[in-house]
Amino acid sequence: MKLTRRRVWLIVFLFCVVFWGLVVATFAYAARDDNSKPGNKPGERNQLADLQKIKKLDLNDKQRKFIESLIVKPEPK
User: Fold this and answer.
1) Number of separate helices (H) and strands (E) present in the chain
2) Domain ranges of the chain
3) pLDDT tens digit string along 16-49?
4) Could you tell me which residue, 11 or 65, shows the higher pLDDT?
């Protein structure tokens, strides 16, 4: 396959477009602000939801008391 001058320049141009596009996309991805707040962090769980889930479990009294002793109850304001 013989490469003409026109085809070589076209290949070089396409390579440059792809290469610089990847460079720009990389910088744009790196500069993106990832400070979005997730729904619940591990220390900020919704305690009411936890209590409701525990009530739905089929536990005996001893198990229920133990699990409820581990949960920190929210302080009234």
Assistant:
1) 3, 0
2) 5-31+46-70
3) 999 999 999 999 998 887 766 656 566 566 667 7
4) 11
Query: What is the residue-wise DSSP string for 40-62?
Result: --GGG--HHHHHHHHHHS---HH
Q: What pLDDT, on the 0 to 100 scale, is given for residue 71?
A: 73
**28 close to 22: Cβ distance less than 8 angstroms:** no
Q: Cα dist. 58→9, 39, 61 in Å?
A: 73, 28, 10
- pLDDT score for 6: 94
- What distance in Å separates the CA atoms of residue 59 and residue 61, rounded to the nearest whole number? 7
Using the Cα atoms of residue 6, residue 10, residue 11 and residue 16 in order, give the sign of their dihedral.
positive
